[in-house]
């Protein structure tokens, strides 16, 4: 059997995206045949090699799954994340969104028996749509910038948005004073004032860590509320905060 890159193998098992798998390898949290992997280009024979990853404080052995079995067992979940939960596969740094995937939080009281992982990030102090799955290929498609999948957010800022600031937001900017971290612009599709506050709907195609908050902050605005309401085709709709439901892949892409 032809060997494949280790990060692709890990993603195929539904553990995380390929980029996250590369991070695990860099952090020496991946073993191949019981030896810690030190080279990013390492390849694996799916039929005979053993792969272990370090997650949630313990080593987990990955079992190779035949393609058709894997397709039949793919799970897709949408969650309306509350504030104060983190998009992580562990709760070492706070309450994880995985803690919410329980029957009592499901709209139909269904149970999820498959290990799933959050796709991408949503800040601890933000709320809204989070996608969870064990489909590594889909995770890579949704999170990789080259695919330019839209993510829509409802943003509430503390004052009116002037034309000059709006142009900068839509053009792009450096997030740091050293001008080493440049981000492309966001698309502002809705804007209306509510008292002293302004409510906006914005679209990101390539999202850096806390990008929206940093962009507005650099221009003197305070983001009072940030909610993700759409990822590609998938909309948050009227799903209550803290609740989740099963969906189909075609609901997303």
Structural account:
By secondary structure, the protein is of the alpha+beta class. Helices cover 19% and strands 30% of the residues. The protein is built from six helices and 17 strands. The chain has helices spanning 6-12, 18-26, 67-72, 136-143, 163-171, 211-218, and strands at 4-5, 30-32, 35-36, 43-44, 51-55, 58-62, 76-81, 117-118, 127-133, 151-157, 172-174, 182-184, 187-194, 197-204, 223-231, 234-235, 244-246. Strands 7, 8, 9, 10, 13, 14, 15, 16 and 17 form a nine-stranded mixed beta sheet that branches. The chain has a four-stranded antiparallel beta sheet with strand order 3-2-5-6, with no helix packed on it. A two-stranded antiparallel ribbon has the order 1-4. Strand 2 (30-32) and strand 3 form a beta hairpin. Helix 1 packs across helix 2 (18-26). Mean pLDDT is 89; it is low at 65-69.
In round numbers, the mean pLDDT is 89
CATH superfamily of the largest domain: Pseudouridine synthase I, catalytic domain, N-terminal subdomain
CATH architectural category of the largest domain: 2-Layer Sandwich
Instruction: Tell me the total number of β-strands.
Output: 17
Number of helices: 6
* The CATH topology of the largest domain: Alpha-Beta Plaits
Q: Main sheet?
A: 9 strands, mixed
Rg, nearest Å? 20 Å
Number of domains: 3
Query: Class of the largest domain, according to the CATH hierarchy?
Result: Alpha Beta
Shape: globular
**By helix and strand content, what is the structural category?**
alpha+beta
Low-confidence stretches: 65-69
Strand content bin = 25-35%
Report the order of strands and helices: EHHEEEEEHEEEHEHEEEEHEEE
Q: What is the rounded distance between the termini?
A: 31 Å
């Amino acid at each position: 059997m032809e060997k494949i890159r280790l990060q692709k193998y890990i993603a195929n098992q539904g553990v995380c995206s390929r980029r996250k798998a590369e991070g695990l390898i860099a952090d020496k949290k991946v073993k191949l045949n019981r030896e810690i992997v030190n080279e990013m280009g390492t390849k694996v024979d799916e039929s005979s090699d053993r792969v272990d990853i370090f997650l949630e404080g313990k080593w987990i052995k990955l079992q190779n799954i035949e393609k058709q079995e894997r397709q039949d067992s793919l799970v897709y979940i949408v969650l309306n994340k509350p504030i104060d939960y983190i998009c992580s596969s562990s709760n070492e740094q706070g309450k994880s969104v995985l803690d919410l995937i329980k029957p009592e939080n499901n709209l139909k009281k269904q149970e999820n028996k498959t290990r799933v992982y959050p796709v991408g990030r949503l800040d601890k102090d933000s709320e809204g749509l989070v996608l969870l799955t064990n489909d590594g290929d889909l995770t890579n498609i949704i999170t990789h910038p080259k695919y330019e999948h839209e993510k829509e957010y409802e943003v509430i800022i503390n004052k009116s948005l002037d034309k000059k600031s709006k142009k900068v937001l839509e053009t792009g900017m450096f997030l740091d004073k050293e001008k080493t971290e440049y981000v492309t612009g966001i698309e502002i599709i809705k804007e209306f004032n509510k008292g002293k506050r302004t409510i906006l709907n914005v679209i990101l195609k390539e999202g850096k860590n806390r990008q929206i908050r940093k962009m507005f902050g650099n221009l003197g605005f305070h983001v009072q509320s940030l909610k993700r309401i759409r990822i590609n085709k998938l909309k948050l709709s009227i799903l209550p905060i803290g609740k989740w439901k099963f969906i189909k892949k075609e609901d997303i892409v």
